[in-house]
Amino acid sequence: MGLNGASTTSTTNNGNSLPFVSAGQLPQGATLQKLIFGAITVIDDELTLEHELGSSIIGKAQGFYLASSLDGSSQTMAFTALFGEHEEDTISFFGVHRTAAHESQVAVVGGSGKYENAQGNATIETLHLTDQHTTDGVETMLQISVYLTDH
């Protein structure tokens, strides 16, 4: 059944079982952004030195982001960057990424290993790459610049 009680057609997206909804199937007054509001996405992604394919992997990011505005323009992010052979060196981040802005600031809220009790901030910029191939249309590349303060 659809959102307003009418039946809808669900198709797959490249083998994913995510439903496909067209604008004509949304309830009166609803937008796709309002339907996504509150959605949580969990991440476990590689961190690379540069944005080009084949760039050196320097660690990984694990955490989540939450669609935190009704218009879809911001995401509350909480994630940890893990470095080192055994992922013993970490930096943790928390803040709001405004997807419509050129860049956003988030706080460095701690760390471990050689980044123990890290403090500072990070600039997050969404890269719009034309030279990259995406397989499912939902890949997003972020450039994160970290600024740690002495404490």
From TrEMBL:
Provide the Gene Ontology terms for cellular component.
Answer: apoplast
Query: Which GO terms fall under biological process for this protein?
Result: phenylpropanoid biosynthetic process
Provide an example Pfam family for this protein.
Dirigent
Arranged from A to Z, the UniProt key words for this protein are: Apoplast, Secreted
Task: Give the UniProt subcellular location, in the record's own words.
Answer: Secreted, Extracellular space, Apoplast
- Transmembrane spans: none
Principal place of residence: secreted
Keyword Secreted on entry: yes
Identify its protein family. Belongs to the plant dirigent protein family.
Binding partners and assembly: Homodimer.
Q: What does this protein do?
A: Dirigent proteins impart stereoselectivity on the phenoxy radical-coupling reaction, yielding optically active lignans from two molecules of coniferyl alcohol in the biosynthesis of lignans, flavonolignans, and alkaloids and thus plays a central role in plant secondary metabolism.
Protein's name in the database: Dirigent protein
Lineage, opening ranks: Eukaryota, Viridiplantae, Streptophyta, Embryophyta, Tracheophyta
